[in-house]
Each structure stands twice: as C-alpha cells, then as structure tokens.
Amino acid sequence: MSSHRKPRSTSPLTRRAVRVGLFAAGVAGVATAVPAQAASGGPSKAVAIASDHVFSRANRLDHTETKDSFTIRQFGKVKNASVRNQANAVSSGCSADDACRSVALSFQIVTYAGEQARLNAVNLSDAANKSCDGCQTLAGAYQFVVATPNPLTLDSAHRRQLADIHRRLDALTRSRTPATELRAQADALAAEVDGVLKDAVANAPKGDAKQDVTMRRHLDGWPGR
Fold first, then answer.
1. Is the predicted pLDDT of residue 20 greater than 70, yes or no?
2. Residue 104 and residue 208: Cα distance in Å, rounded?
3. pLDDT-derived band of residue 38, with 50, 70 and 90 as boundaries?
4. Cis omega (within 30 of 0) on the bond before 223?
5. Helices (H), the chain
6. pTM value > 0.70
7. What angle do CA 60, 66, 71 make, to 5 degrees?
8. Burial of 142 from C-beta contacts in 10 A (0-12 / 13-18 / 19+)
9. Across the chain, where does the E strand assignment appear?
10. Lowest CB count within 10 Å: 52, 68, 140, 185, which one?
11. Region at 111 (left for phi over 0; alpha for psi -120 to 50; beta for the rest)
12. Are the CB atoms for 142 and 186 separated by under 8 Å?
C-alpha cells in the first residue's frame, strides 16, 4: 500500500526537523534559562535556550494517541536566546473502517528582556498519514515570544488565566472533536493566550527597548481544509 501525505515543498531545515521528530518520540522539553530569582534584574546571561517537542503516533495497536504541551519559559535578561517549538503527529496502518486518530499540540511561551538581545526562534509542525485511509492526524505548534526592556514576571492573575487555558487545551486534545474543528478551537485558545500576554506586557514597566508579543502558528493536518 502507498503512503499518503499532503503534498508540500519543504526546506532542508523542515525535513531535518521532521526526521528528528519521528525518531524522538516522547521528548518533553529542554530548557536552559535564567533562574526564577534572576528575573528581577541583574546582569544579562550570555545565552538562553529552550526546546519543546510533542510527538504522537497512532497505529493498529494503539488507534488513538493525543498529546499536548503548554510550557512557560521566563528568561529574564539575555544577550542571545534560541527557542524551538515543534509538534509531530503520525497515523499509520489503519483503514477507513478502523481509522486511527493522532493529535499533537504544543504551546510554548517565552519571555526575555534586553536592549540588544538577539533571538533565534523556530516553530514547526508536521502531520503524516502512512497507509492510513480515513485517519485523522493533526499537529499544531503555537509559539509566543514576549520581548520587554526589563525582565517580565507574570503575576498570579495572568498565571491563573494561562492555567485555565492549559486545562481547556488538555480537554480539547483528549476530546473526539473532528480534526478540522479542533484546528479552529486550538486557534481560539491561542488567541486567548495572545490576549493574556499582551495585557501583561501593557502593564509592565516601559523602557527604551522594544516591547511586544509575537505569536507564531504552524498547523498541519490530514484531512486538510
């Protein structure tokens, strides 16, 4: 039987990221960041690194696998930051009468500060159906990067709001919502996260450096829209 995938053009970086994802099942997240107490100020750290990855695979032995991740990385002052967020989902070997369902959603929030801080951000997702007619496969990567002149510490009110969104993301991921509708609901949750972070930034101390929230979204699914 043949392998079915959405046709797409891929860059070498994307192909490499997918290969890494397919062979790195179960990777949760790795971060090297400024300690929590450093967020109040002090000298800049040379480098801050964060990597979050969600991988799900459904097949004849496990027809349904759904996973999500919701991480918050608060770096404080940095000179260089490198952040990566990735979601991979695979369905293989099932049939239209006995379909598989694979969902991987990764939400990554990163805050950093510094007047001349340099950022390298990567956000990727890939969904693949392998000989899996009628299967539902969805991978979604949502990355939120918050840049402020001074270190931003999310207060308890904003953290409660984000925790509530996280709970609803968990419930959505575990639900039987069709993949096309699940996309829309995941987008709605991402819009809420964006709003919470923009509110936090609006109330943060101002400075000379840039102050903004950037959301990066990458969704891939089968069947597609």
1. no
2. 39
3. very low
4. yes
5. 12-22, 156-174, 179-202
6. yes
7. 150
8. buried
9. 29-32, 45-58, 64-92, 101-113, 118-130, 136-148, 212-222
10. 185
11. beta
12. yes
